[in-house]
């Protein structure tokens, strides 16, 4: 039966629960009506995964937080639940997917601690704070270019600033040459777009080139060490026992992709939310000391990351009247948890002064986002520099013409046409 096939080949099962299509155009354009329905439907719903079937998903704040914190009962590594493949990967997938998948986000316990501890320091608050002048300089360089090239026409702020700026920051942090940036945009452009089997095939050439490129960079850092995290990681690899070459590859790939893709969409989604809420925008632009709470609220209200990665249940249990078997794959719907009225007062309202604001947009538990301090700082700098330099910037198209990408779990615009002045 189909259920057996799903279980065998994809690790999913069909549970008798209300189904939500979170990659649909309607959901991506405005997730809030569906989030209200999810809360009415209960603590557990099914989300449709294009190509594969359905995945059980938790919707309430407390349940999602507990789920992410309990890495013993809900493990990232399929091994803990008696499965052979890493999460999201199956035996039939091309080898290059596996080469990049053995990263800290796919491991639990001692392996996770070892991998994360190798890079933890670089992302601590004090180290990230010390990057502020350099990051501001990078933002201003891009804005200088935009100002020069814009003429009278609109600019696509998504591609020309929101994407390039965080990519430049993570490349500098890793120690990758600036001139190689355009290649990453080409190679990684198709990642995460699962609309048909063809989309898998489209990702492969970029991944193969990225693997060859990174292996070459490792060789070069071994021969002549240079500033940046890659050289530090290469040294850890050479000291032996701390990091193997496949782990090094998976780590740098994770930092490179997670380190810019999500922040790109926080800046662009956040900017659009501010343009949609003129009164809130004014509060922020009148007083930039509001930036820390404002960024947290933008993360809660319009987070690019809408769901956690898959976890495997490691033991039998019951949730919301459903029997969960060991090995069952599940996710936490961060976007639904962030609008739970048991946790947030007036959750459907954007309030840049909201405090406390313990949103789950960076996850929770041992896998809580490594780069959260960096992402917040980059977003604060991006918005502050944009609105300070171009105080009257406005949307260069009708609001109804704004299109969102049909992706699962990552809310991202197709483009963001802006007139700077
Ligand atoms: C993990 C969100 C920016 C690196 C995560 C997780 C979330 C998340 C939700 C946990 C996933 C799960 O548990 O299933 C975001 C958002 C960002 C952002 C919303 C920006 C707005 C960054 C940046 C980096 C980064 C700038 C920089 C390198 C990572 C890494 C992990 C992670 C390495 C895995 C941590 C672990 O497994 O211990 N992120 N992230 N992220 N993020 Fe981010």
Automatic annotation (TrEMBL):
Keywords: Heme, Iron, Metal-binding, Monooxygenase, Oxidoreductase
CDD domains: CYP107-like (cd11029)
A Pfam family matched in the record: p450
PROSITE patterns in the cross-refs: CYTOCHROME_P450
Keyword Protein transport: no
Single Gene Ontology MF annotation: monooxygenase activity
Membership in a protein family: Belongs to the cytochrome P450 family.
Protein name: Cytochrome P450
Taxonomic lineage: Bacteria, Pseudomonadati, Planctomycetota, Planctomycetia, Pirellulales
């Amino acid at each position: 039966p189909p259920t057996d096939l799903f279980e065998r080949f994809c690790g999913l099962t069909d549970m008798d629960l209300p189904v939500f299509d979170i990659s649909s155009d309607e959901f991506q354009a405005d997730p809030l009506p569906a989030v209200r329905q999810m809360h009415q439907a209960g603590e557990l719903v099914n989300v449709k995964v294009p190509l594969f079937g359905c995945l059980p998903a938790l919707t309430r704040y407390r349940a999602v937080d507990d789920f992410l914190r309990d890495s013993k009962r809900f493990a990232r590594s399929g091994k803990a639940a008696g499965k052979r493949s890493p999460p999201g990967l199956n035996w039939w997938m091309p080898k290059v997917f596996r080469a990049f998948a053995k990263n800290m986000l796919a491991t639990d316990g001692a392996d996770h601690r070892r991998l994360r501890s190798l890079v933890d320091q670089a992302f601590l608050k004090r180290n990230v704070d010390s990057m502020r002048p350099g990051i501001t300089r990078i933002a201003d360089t891009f804005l200088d270019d935009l100002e020069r090239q814009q003429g009278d026409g609109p600019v696509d702020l998504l591609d020309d600033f929101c994407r390039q700026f965080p990519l430049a920051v993570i490349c500098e942090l890793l120690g990758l040459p600036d001139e190689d940036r355009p290649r990453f945009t080409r190679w990684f452009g198709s990642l995460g777009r699962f609309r048909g089997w063809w989309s898998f095939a489209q990702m492969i050439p970029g991944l193969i080139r990225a693997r060859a490129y990174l292996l070459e960079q490792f060789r070069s850092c071994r021969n002549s060490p240079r500033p940046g995290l890659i050289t530090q990681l290469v040294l850890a690899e050479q000291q032996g026992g701390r990091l193997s070459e496949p782990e090094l590859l998976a780590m740098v790939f994770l930092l490179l992709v997670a380190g810019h893709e999500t922040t790109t969409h926080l800046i662009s989604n956040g900017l659009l939310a501010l343009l949609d809420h003129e009164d809130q925008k004014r509060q922020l632009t009148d007083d930039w000391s509001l930036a820390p709470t404002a960024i947290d609220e933008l993360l809660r209200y319009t987070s690019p990351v809408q769901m956690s990665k898959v976890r495997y249940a490691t033991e039998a249990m019951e949730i919301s009247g459903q029997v969960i078997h060991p090995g069952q794959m599940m996710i936490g719907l961060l976007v639904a948890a962030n609008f739970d009225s048991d946790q947030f007062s007036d959750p459907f309202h954007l309030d840049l002064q909201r405090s406390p604001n313990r949103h789950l947009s960076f996850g929770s538990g041992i896998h809580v986002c490594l780069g959260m301090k960096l992402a917040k700082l980059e977003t604060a700098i991006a918005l502050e520099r944009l609105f300070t330099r171009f105080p009257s910037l406005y949307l260069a198209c009708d609001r109804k013409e704004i299109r969102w990408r049909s992706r699962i779990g990552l809310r991202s615009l197709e483009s963001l046409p802006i007139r700077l002045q």
